[in-house]
Design brief:
The structure is a single chain. This protein has 13 helices and 36 strands. By secondary structure, the chain is an alpha+beta fold. The chain folds into six domains: about 110 residues, membrane protein fhac (Ubiquitin-like (UB roll)), CATH 3.10.20.310; about 80 residues, Roll (Ubiquitin-like (UB roll)), CATH 3.10.20; about 90 residues, Roll (Ubiquitin-like (UB roll)), CATH 3.10.20.310; about 80 residues, Roll (Ubiquitin-like (UB roll)); about 70 residues, Roll (Ubiquitin-like (UB roll)); about 300 residues, Beta Barrel (Porin). The chain is globular and about 125 Å long. It starts with a helix and ends with a strand.
Length: about 800
């Protein structure tokens, strides 16, 4: 009897299903309790359990979620739990449970409706933003089960991308287009509208701080004619919120402790193309520092602690400076092992006199030592290459300055994209574990390429370079270059820590040929270098312990130079200097390298001063014969790198040289004198053509011809501004503008200089750099400002490698 009633209810509605509407829920409430009472009254035993409607999902996967089993008693609560469990699998949009069969053999049937699968995703309506920009945003894969929540998350990501690009009013929606075999195409429908540009930023209430001072710290800027290139004028909510904090920081660094920035108003123009931003400010009063004092557990005299503080009594309160002072006071303690020192600023505000008494309260805590130093992320670089740059040591007290210096030195290797040093508690409160985590980047290049320049025409290059050879921190380079005016074959090797000592070892083997204006220079030779880090002398001279970036080098060079004049020099007064011979020279140099990255520096400086002696004692006639080159040379090389806002980098380089005769019977050969011009000296002028000249000609000739003979003194100054190229920086492209100054001057009686303003050749230019997977490539156009008849109006140069 109960089973017949149950069947009657089934004819109207299945026994149990996932309710999809209020009507479904009402019918379930009507049928399920009555049917369940009938079933439970008869104590129905389920004969079997069957699953229907599934096409892609295995039956066993569904049955694993079902608690009702054959031979068990019918239980309404179990069926309700089964439905929930099946729906939690995420594969189904509906579940229906029916009781079928006879009284003697009832069958419990779970009928499922699978969610559709994603056939493909498509974006429509994107005209201004490429589909490639959305590749990393959409994570809905073909043939996956449709997840509407995931689709909505993707809509939000696309919407955010449009806001980032300045399409503040863009509308993004989606639709599901049915496809055969229970599949759908997910279509993201976009209505871009017009790009919204910041037309004006207004400040109200800024009486004592200039508008320009506030806009200078903001990422949000007013648009202009070049906004389509620079992206200026784009409104980004996240960046604008940071701008409001930056505005407050400007005021707080000028004593305005109570600055208040009200909620800005943002309005659209009637045509919805422009945004007008109004920022209301309440500046308040300016406060000055009344007193500076120190409290807490002071381990040093107050006078000593005060020397690390830059804030002064009577100055305007500057929050950023006070923050640096807090860090500086803490560093005094961190450098003595108090890793958990806490320095708090205690203030006493005198509103009447508008002063703030400042007290630095110090709580040092206990001393902490390094229990262990771990190195991670270095899959190729040996641990010791990293560890020898660290200035923290296991078993010693923690050191804040050592941590910072360690990060700087590891980063300066140029082998890693990122370097992070983190600390955590060790096995006890007075123990600390430091972890040096690096992310390696490619340090080797293999290059085969061709280029073109205005002067050299076609240039062929081939290079294999490894700046971290086999992970040992060594440098090995093999390169070949060929053009119509120069050829080079070279092998270089550098070991910066010879046998893990402070010594540097390097050698260089080369064969070169270069075409000068009046002769060709061919050289075959090599050099051997030994260097020593001066901090290694600290056992004898303790003050040298701070000279970790200072190295003294000694380089022996031996090369045979063949000079082939390209014109008859019978009438040239200095023809005896165009000669071949062997150069055997010893060069001493002192180098100071404080660059943040030795391969691609963006901050710091590099200094080198050297003296080279090609002396008779180094070229005995019994070995080298009479054809030897004797001279003395002095050089200075100074480079500076300055990071600027928005990814800009400023660079300056000054190079000076002086070479003189060893004695009157051994004048400096022309091949060793100075010549400027070209991509690595003064861009815009032909290669090696800036030089003193002598004039010669045939008897009776109407005009004399200038012959470049080289000079004994040179000075070159290079200025560069490198900047990111919008949209191409991720590919390794950066732009550059530059200005070069320089000249070469002759020894008395050895030629004259062509007259130029300020006695300096000058040029300006532009170009771009491509930091390609095979190495840095330079493409530059130089414009000579002191153009000679032989110079072009614009000189193009293609060069491999860095110039700074």
């Amino acid at each position: 009897m109960s089973l017949r009633f149950f069947s009657l209810c089934n004819t109207f509605r299945p026994l149990v299903r996932q309710p999809r509407s209020a009507l479904h829920l009402f019918l379930l409430l009507l049928c399920i309790p009555v049917a369940a009472v009938a079933a439970e009254a008869g104590r129905i035993t389920v004969e079997s359990v069957r699953v229907e409607g599934n096409r892609r999902i295995e039956v066993d996967a569904i049955k694993a979620a079902i608690s009702e089993k054959p031979g068990g008693l019918f239980d309404r609560r179990k069926i309700d739990a089964d439905i929930r469990a099946i729906m939690k699998l995420g594969f189904f949009s509906d579940v229906v449970v029916q009781l079928e069969g006879t009284n003697d053999a009832p069958v419990l049937v779970y009928k499922v409706t699978e969610k559709p699968a994603v056939h493909e995703t498509r974006i429509e309506g994107n005209e201004e933003i490429s589909k490639d920009d959305f590749k990393d945003l959409t994570d809905i894969k073909p043939f996956s089960i449709l997840d509407v929540q995931a689709v909505r998350r993707n809509v939000k990501k696309i919407q955010d991308k449009y806001v980032e690009k300045g399409y503040y009013l863009a509308e993004v929606g989606y639709r599901l287009d049915p496809q055969p075999d229970n599949q759908v195409t997910v279509v993201f429908a976009i209505n871009e509208h017009a790009k919204v540009q910041v037309k004006e930023i207004r400040f109200l209430g800024n009486r004592r701080v200039a508008r320009e001072e506030l806009t200078a710290v903001m990422q949000t800027q007013e648009g202009g004619y070049l906004s389509f290139l620079t992206s200026s004028g784009t409104y980004k909510e996240e960046a604008f919120q940071r701008d409001l904090q930056a505005i407050q920081a400007v005021y707080r660094d000028q004593g305005f402790m109570n600055i208040r920035v009200d909620k800005p108003s943002v309005s659209l123009s009637p045509d919805k193309r422009f945004i007008y931003i109004t920022i209301r400010l309440d500046e308040g009063d300016q406060f000055r520092i009344g007193k500076i004092d120190f409290s807490g557990e002071l381990l040093h005299p107050k006078e000593e602690v005060a020397r690390s503080v830059t804030s002064k009594i009577g100055e305007l309160v500057a929050f950023s400076r006070i923050g640096r002072d807090l860090y500086a006071v803490a560093d005094l303690y961190r450098d003595e092992g108090y890793a958990y020192v806490n320095v708090s600023p205690l203030t006493n505000v005198d509103a009447k006199n508008k002063t703030v008494d400042l007290t630095f309260d110090v709580q040092p805590g206990q001393k902490v030592s390094f229990e262990r130093i771990e190195v991670t992320g270095n899959t190729r670089t040996r641990d010791k290459v990293i560890r020898r740059e660290l200035r923290i040591y296991e078993g010693e007290l923690t050191n804040g300055t050592g941590l910072r210096n360690s990060k700087q030195r590891v980063t300066a290797l140029g082998f890693f994209e990122t370097v992070e040093i983190t600390t955590r508690k060790g096995s006890a409160d007075d123990k600390m574990i430091a972890t040096v985590e690096v992310k390696e980047k490619p340090t080797g290049t293999f290059q085969l390429g061709a280029g073109f320049s205005s002067y050299e025409n076609f240039i062929l290059t081939g290079q294999i370079s490894q700046n971290n050879f086999l992970g040992w921190g060594q440098s090995l380079t093999l390169q070949i270059q060929w053009s119509s005016v120069r050829q080079l074959g070279q092998i270089q090797f550098v070991e910066p820590y010879f046998f893990d000592t402070k010594w540097t070892f390097a050698f260089d083997l080369y064969a070169t040929e270069g075409a000068y204006t009046n002769f060709t220079r061919r050289a075959l030779g090599g050099s051997l270098t030994w260097g020593y880090e001066l901090s290694g002398l600290s056992d004898w001279m303790p003050w040298t312990s701070k000279l970790e970036d200072w190295r003294l080098f000694a380089t022996y060079t031996n090369e045979f130079v063949r000079v082939s004049p390209s014109l008859s020099l019978n009438d040239v007064p200095l023809s005896n200097e165009f000669r071949s011979g062997t150069t055997s020279a010893l060069r001493f140099s002192l180098q100071i390298d404080k660059r943040n990255n030795r391969l691609f520096p963006t901050s710091g400086h590099y200094q080198s001063i050297g003296a080279e002696f090609a002396a008779p004692v180094l070229a005995p006639t019994g070995i080298f014969g009479q054809s030897v080159n004797l001279f003395t040379r002095y050089t200075i090389d100074s480079r500076y790198y300055l990071p600027l806002p928005f990814g800009f980098v400023g660079r300056a380089k000054l190079a000076a040289g002086y070479i003189r005769d060893w004695d009157s019977s051994h004048p400096v050969p022309a091949s060793e004198l100075y010549y400027l011009g070209g991509s690595n000296s003064i861009r815009g002028y032909r290669q090696l053509t800036i030089s003193p000249v002598v004039y010669t000609g045939s008897p009776g000739a109407s005009a004399l011809s200038p012959v470049t003979v080289g000079g004994d003194k040179q000075l070159v100054a290079n200025l560069e501004l490198e900047f990111p190229v919008p949209g191409l920086e991720k590919l390794g492209f950066r732009g550059v503008v530059f200005s070069d100054w320089g000249n070469v001057w002759p020894a008395p009686g050895r030629g004259t200089n062509r007259p130029v303003p300020l006695d300096m050749y000058k040029s300006v230019g532009f170009g771009f750099r491509w930091f390609s997977p095979i190495g840095p490539l330079r493409f530059e156009w130089g414009i000579p400002l002191n153009k000679r008849p032989e110079d072009q109006a614009v000189d193009f140069q293609f060069t491999v490698g860095n110039s700074f």
